[in-house]
Amino acid sequence: MGLSRILPRSQPPPEPVEPAGETDTAVESTAVPRLHAVPSAELTDDPEEHPLARVIAFANQKGGVAKTTTTLNLGVALKEAGKRVLIIDLDPQGNLTMSQGMNPDVIERSMFDVLVHRVPISDVIHTVEVDIAVASIDLAGAELALSALIGRERALEKALVEVRDKYDYVLLDTPPSLGLLTINAFVAADGVIVPVQCEYLSLRGLVQLENTLAMVRENLNPAVRVQGIVPTMYDGRTLHAREAIEILQENFGDLLFETRIRKTVRYAEAPVKGSSVLRYDPTGPAAQAYRDLAKEVLDGAQAREHA
User: Fold this and answer.
1) Highest mean predicted confidence (pLDDT) among 32-46, 71-85, 226-240, 247-261
2) How far apart are CA 69 and CA 77, in angstroms?
3) What are the CA-CA distances from residue 12 to residues 35, 178, 213, 255 (Å)?
């Protein structure tokens, strides 16, 4: 059943405009963890032994829906489960980078250089809780710079060729817009996970996202689909939040993850320490929520393999 049953169908996405960013709290730090060219010395380059990573984009053009929080904490939870994980910061605000204790304003090389100047992505990967390809303030000019390049929509896809056999999962944190950086993520991705705040206006944004994905499938990446929808900032005490879940279940059925990411101050506190919530409060319910979500993602991967 389509979302249009209860929400009006939108027109094709307008020209991308960079809106205000997400509200994840972070602290500025000039400390930069070790930069490395190869994710792990123990990894082999034999593609037969290590299949290509599954690439997942986290997208929602509405800001403040916990895309960055979900990218980081799901990535750390997958690493806890024994997976090799790379997270990539494609947001010019650099919230994902800051959430791991780095300051985007002082980073010399970032995803801007990878996308625009074709610098190897291994040159901008830092090892913290997981491997992270960092963003800098320069990324704000990436869409303008990319617009003049041939094959601009495939810049990220080409950059990932270098490292896809070295990871099990590559997670892409996208800007709160449907611009060229997000299009690059959709072209490179095997699937899209959509964090959705449990309120009506946030649900309406799914229509435009669905339209954009349809255009990407038609022209650039026939395989990309919404892999799942994650309800975030859920407060089961409110009727509005419960109704939002019912709307999502009615329209998306099995695409809706069972895990509910509930409201808690822990998700705001952890980035201040340059940490995931799994390291900041490892035994708390906030950390357990992302472990539960990681299990759902892994179970879904197994189901696809046996389909």
Assistant:
1) 71-85
2) 12
3) 41, 11, 11, 23
Under 8 Å between Cβ of 138 and 179 = no
Helix (H) or strand (E) holding 230: strand 226-232
* Span 259-298, pLDDT tens digits: 999 999 999 999 999 999 999 999 999 999 999 999 999 9
Cα dist from 176 to 64, 95, 109, 181, 279, whole Å:
8, 12, 22, 10, 26
Domains of the chain with bracketed CATH: 23-38+49-300 (3.40.50.300)
Q: What is the torsional sign of CA 25, 246, 248, 5?
A: negative
Cα Rg of the chain (Å, integer) = 18
Rounded to an integer, what distance in angstroms lies between the CA atom of residue 140 and that of residue 68? 17
Count of C-beta atoms within a 10 Å radius of residue 283: 7
174, amino acid identity: T
Cα pseudo-dihedral 197, 201, 181, 11, rounded to 10: 150
Q: Which residues contact 266 (CB under 8 A, 6 or more apart)?
A: 277, 280, 281, 284, 286, 287
Residues facing 196 on adjacent strands: 231
Q: Using CA atoms in the order 156, 210, 94, 149, what is the torsion angle rounded to 10 degrees?
A: 40
Predicted structure pTM score = 0.83
Greater model confidence, 137 or 24: 137
Q: Taking a C-beta distance cutoff of 8 angstroms, is the pair 47, 38 a contact?
A: no
Q: For the chain, give the number of residues.
A: 307
DSSP label at residue 70: H
As beta bridge partners, residue 305 has: none
CA angle 114, 117, 219 (to 5 degrees): 70
CB 140 within 8 A of CB 168: no
For residues 81 and 211, give the distance between their C-alpha atoms in angstroms, rounded to a whole number. 34
Tell which residue, 72, 39, 136, 85, has the closest CA to residue 266: 72
